[in-house]
Amino acid sequence: MMTVEDWAEIRRLHRVEGMAIKAIARRLAVSRNAVRRALARDEPPKYVRSPKGSIVDAVEPVIRELLRTTPDMPATVIAERIGWTRSITVLKDRVREIRPYYLPPDPSTRTSYDPGHRVQCDLWFPPVQIPLGAGQVGAPPVLVMSAGYSRMVFAVMIASRQAPDLILGHWELLQRMGAVPRELVWDNEVAVGSWRGGKPKLAEEFEVFRGILGIGVRQCRPRDPEAKGLVERTNGYFETSFLPGRTFTSVTDFNAQLTQWLVRANSRHHRTLGCKPVDRWATDLAAMVALPPVTPTLGWRVTTRLPRDHYVRLDSNDYSVDPVAVGRKVEVAADLDHVTVRLGERLLAVHDRCWARHQTITDPAHRAAALAMAAARHDRPPTEQAGEVEQRDLADYDRRFGLEVA
Predict the structure, then answer these.
(1) β-sheet with 317-320: strand ranges across
(2) What's residue 50's pLDDT?
(3) Are 332 and 300 in contact (CB under 8 A)?
(4) Distance between the two ends of the chain, CA-based, in angstroms?
(5) Secondary structure (H, E, C), 207-244
(6) Which of 23, 51, 186, 399 to pair with 37, CA 20 to 30 A apart?
(7) What is the number of other CB atoms lying within 10 angstroms of the CB of residue 57?
(8) How many CA atoms lie within 13 A of 181 on its CB side?
(9) Which has the closest alpha carbon to 254: 158, 134, 354?
(10) Residues in the chain where the model's pLDDT stays below 70
(11) Which residues, in sequence order, are bridge partners of residue 334?
(12) DSSP 110-156
């Protein structure tokens, strides 16, 4: 068989040197027919092995018939139906090659990003253990937002994936942006919304939030991760570039390190864009909608009657309240950092929010006030511990049971 070097040299001698076929054959010691074939071929010669066939060829018609009726039938089930006793690997390879001809087309469209238009959102659960207080560790969710046009990334760890905390995380990141995108893109996160009857339906709290902002929310169809591939890839980028080699002492430390790292990440060269995300951020920001002029009322809002033990429960934790309001309705409000309790305009309690689970947080002033009120009600000194127990003389018991010795 003629080599690529012979083929290239024959064409050079004929086109550049102007040599005749007979002269080329004599110089290279090849036949004149070989020279003619080389001159007639525009592609280099290559060896192609003749196909020998496969053991699956005999059963391929049956496989096609099964796929025609049930396109998603697993290869293992096909092997059982046709009585296959040979290697399952070669059968799977053939089924993988044939199956696309019987499945309906399922293309994914490329999303276009205009300045200020879309920001993709997602929850990332970092595979690390972070101290939450009270001896507990965990990995609370991180709200991630990736701007479509500029690829700028914003992220913050939130206490839970419940609607009040999720909306608080949105507001925190939107304040960092300094504006509001015209549309948020979300998957079927329960606190955001879901698909019902083939139509997207936002959760009530998130519907109110988007109404306050005056923007739209696009819910991706179920099992369609490509619809928000930007933020999905960002989550993977966090795990490969942010987490390795880092330790965290608290949630505050995690958010501080993440915020500092994002400054560098948003200043890196983005291969798809051909520039840095910060270079396009000004254009992206200018096309967004302004933040509401008044800070909206967000977070946890609960109205409850204060029980006798003067504690209120919020997200599995109990917080003490001034007992002066026992039996009356109080308003409990909380954000990502603090829990406050009010009776009308009167402030009854302020606590740092505890991210651990099933804890009791007590203000010493509230405990002292409760003890003082209880003591005043029963006319006894306000002490936290009972007084000394009277010690009775054992001889009294002897006399009671007639055992007194003369």
Answers:
(1) 311-314, 317-320, 360-361
(2) 76
(3) yes
(4) 134
(5) HHHHHHHCCEEEECCCCCHHHHHHHHHHHHHHHHHHCC
(6) 51
(7) 10
(8) 29
(9) 158
(10) 1, 108-112, 225, 379-392, 397, 404-406
(11) 300, 339
(12) PPP--TTTEEEEEEE--SS-EEEETTEEE---EEEEEETTT--EEEE
Within its chain, how far is the Cα of 119 from the centroid? 14
Predicted pLDDT of residue 223: 75
The token pair that represents 268 in the structure block: 């890196």
Tokens of 354: 């505890």
Category of 29 on φ-ψ map: left (φ > 0), alpha (ψ -120 to 50) or beta: left
Residues 166 and 145: their CA atoms lie apart, in Å, by 12
Distance of CA 92 to the CA centre of its chain: 33
Other beta carbons less than 10 A from residue 105's beta carbon: 5
The DSSP result for 284-343, as a single string, is HHHTSBPPPSS----SEEEEEE--TT-EEEETTEEEE--GGGTTSEEEEEE-SSEEEEEE
From residue 32, how far is each of 29, 271, 276, 394 by CA, in Å?
A: 9, 53, 60, 133
Q: Distance (Å, rounded) from C-alpha 252 to C-alpha 249?
A: 8
HSE on the CB side for 203, CA within 13 Å?
Answer: 17
Distance between CA atoms of residues 189 and 191, nearest Å:
6
Q: One-letter amino acid identity for 57?
A: D
**How many Cα neighbours within 13 Å face the side chain of 317?**
20
Are the C-beta atoms of 312 and 306 separated by less than 8 Å?
Answer: yes
User: How high is the pLDDT of residue 383?
Assistant: 55
